[in-house]
User: What shape does this take?
Amino acid sequence: MRIGITCYPTYGGSGVVATELGIELAGLGHEIHFISYSQPFRLSGRDEGIFYHEVPVSSYPLFEFPPYDLALASRMAEVAEFYELDLLHVHYAIPHSVSALLARQILASKGRRLPFVTTLHGTDITLVGLDRCYLPITRYAIQESDGVTSISDYLKQKTVEDFGVTREIETITNFVNCDLYTPLKDEEARAQARAHLAAPDEAILMHLSNFRPVKRVVDVVKVFAKVASQIPAQLVLVGDGPDRSAAEWLAHDLGIHGRVRFLGKQDRVNELLPLADLMLMPSELESFGLAALEAMACKVPSIATRVGGVPELIDDGETGLLYEVGDIDGMAAGALTLLSDRTRLDAMREAGRHTAQKRFCASLVVPHYVRYYEKVLAGGN
Ligand code: GMT
Assistant: This one.
């Protein structure tokens, strides 16, 4: 198949999923065309079977807000025509599904069919999409998509309840490349790599996100402060975003900044995750929690919140520990319990890897997308 993929190309879970999906599909022999305003950050630019088409957005003094969604629709239609795409797959409904709808109409006016699949990721439904300025058009574009997938049952349910969407939605969960996201087998190599982040007797707690308010990065620091008051430990934060500075200030105010490292945006998180003992994900809401899955695949259990689709991923007590949002004491106590009980921690590490392999490996989930495309192309949706 020739598939056009549109996503937010910068750091963020939906862009990561879209890019990893494109890479996996290209690996299966499909021809993938990314259409976006910049090259998705996990692409090297030289990936076999993958092409990138930039969307130029020209400015004009009259435009206070340059219309990216229109430029995107034009580019989608051009790329679909020139490269004879079979379908478009857009990630994050706003505005990508609306642009795809327009591109489909442009192609239809030329007698060509261009179906599109919309994948719902999270705040496109739970936050931004519910904003009255976007709700009618988002609902319309979802309803009119040729196929709609959701990354968790929770998000599917929310879309039906909050948007009144009546069309069928298929849950296709997020996935991880279990060969790339894997524990470091060589203990010596792991110890050497950990030495860059912590002393040998220190536990490493990690956080990975885009530091938006929904991630509650300040809670990460608060939980860590409690843990670090009891045992030797380092906190490693990967990513960047609006709440980074608040977290940095808090680490200073609590006098723990010497034990907190902000690494900023990192491309190869698969090399960092296996170095951690625990992942902290105290989010206000997660429709899935991709960071926790990537950690699980590397045998790193998460201390997380019982929100959204997280319980579909983490089995509380088995592959991680779940708490109410803002339960700093609970999360810190949970982390300390695991870090002081090696047998339990090891059992959880093994169970997490097992779950990632049995349910969320790219080799299992990506064929589900392929079958779904085939169904859409056959007009069966
Ligand atoms: O909805 C968002 O916040 C955007 C999106 C992103 O680009 O970071 O995150 C969502 O999609 C991820 C990938 O499918 C999920 O793992 C995240 O749980 C989800 N975020 C939220 O629901 C807050």
